Amino acid sequence: MTSRTAPASPQSPASSDLSGLPMPLPDPAEVGRLYDRFTALGDASLGENLHFGYWDSPDSTVPLAEATDRLTDMMADRLRVGPGARVLDLGCGTGAPGVRTARRTGAHVTGVSVSAEQIRRAEALAEGAGLAGRMTFRQANALELPFPDGSFDAVLALESIIHMPDRGRVLAEAGRVLRPGGRIVLTDFLERAEIPAAGRPAVERYLRDFMMTMVSAEVYPPLLRAAGLWLEELLDISDHTLRQTFVLLSERIRKARAELTGRYGEEMVDQFDPGDLVGIEEFGYLLLVAAKPGR
């Protein structure tokens, strides 16, 4: 017998319990509307990959587009899947990470997003890549996934859990749809230390504008245990991701500011520019791998 509703997590904490920033919890419907609105601007500034990059060293000159592919590959490799496997891309964006994962692993990828516009674009991208037969997309809420128990061999959640109001419930749903032995690989925003007073306005602005929250690292072990998952890897990769992404993205937006403002408006461009976050080292980024026990 299968269930489509995740059990309540043992705690459904407000975001002030997850980090030191008292931010409101995101609402999935509002997040969907946000990305319906911002997806085109993201395409124009970040390209196909609407997520952070990964650089081997702080002085690396690898372009942003290549760095975002590197982060996708790091996560896809940790899924440990091959041809014929079933992967759930939880918060699939416009489909680029899913397309790359499908090509790299040979797996069938099912992407879900709360944004109808992102689903439309993801379907078009998969079709253009010749992968429509190995990729499907659905508009769905990660808090209540429309899939039976044990439907997937792995779950990928690249910068999506930051938008979800209850991480425990998301992990419980991911665990439910995973087969025994399956793995979940995710990234999240990490409060490495208390955000200093000088940096709080920028961080709070960024989280508020994009309907996100962040965690401290110690939050995850009990949430995973409650969801029936085993922690395998928890990495702070902040020094390889955040600063260079913020710098390069801000430079790209500022160089194209006149064009972007004409197309999307000054307010949207200001919201998307992360230049004020550069140098706030307490704002971090983590990569997590967990597994469902069994074979």
Automatic annotation (TrEMBL):
GO terms for biological process: methylation. Pfam families: Methyltransf_11. Coiled coil: none annotated. Residues 1-16 have a biased composition (Low complexity). Residues 1-25 are annotated as: Disordered. SMART domains: PKS_MT (SM00828). Residues 80-274 form the Polyketide synthase-like methyltransferase domain. GO terms for molecular function: methyltransferase activity. This is Methyltransferase domain-containing protein. It comes from Streptomyces gamaensis.
